[in-house]
Write a structure and sequence with these properties.
This protein has 159 residues and is α/β, with parallel strands linked by helices. The protein folds into 2 domains: 72 residues, Helix Hairpins; 77 residues, Transcription elongation factor, GreA/GreB, C-terminal domain (Chitinase A, domain 3). The protein has 3 helices and 7 strands. The strands form 2 sheets. A 5-stranded mixed beta sheet has the order 5-4-3-7-6. It has a two-stranded parallel ribbon with strand order 1-2. Helix 1 runs antiparallel to helix 2. The protein starts with a strand and ends in a 7-residue tail after the last strand.
Amino acid sequence: MNYFFLEPDLRAFKAQIEELRVRTNETLVDMSEGTRQSSETWHDNYLFEEGQRQWKMWATQLQEWEAILDKTEVVAPAALSDKVGIGSEVIMTDQESGQQKTYRIGSYIAFEPGDISYASPLGQILLFASVGKIQKGMIAGAEKSFKIEKIRGFLKDMP
């Protein structure tokens, strides 16, 4: 399985991975300090034990994100299109509430405010939809339906 990223999101993702590497290394240093500050054995040492918990958490996330990075493919934002794609801005109406909302379909992990991941439940409902269609799907255990009002690609529609 490949994971698709827009270029700005991939840069942000790589920066997050680097931060995880730093946190992981800092935690190892903290654990080392914890063993020097106590004459007790390692299992009675709060700093060491907390360091182990933190290290495990950061190292696990780092490993998961590096696995995603290994299978990442950069995609160009969707140009003008009659179907929703990664990078498309979608204006839709919630058929239950009548409320109109606008979302941009982002990368596998979306970093821009207001973007939703194409892999999220809502992203999956909207991806490949076309104007005028009612899209249905499950979100948080409830069936939702949305009417696609307008799709704007990266180049933006002409007025």
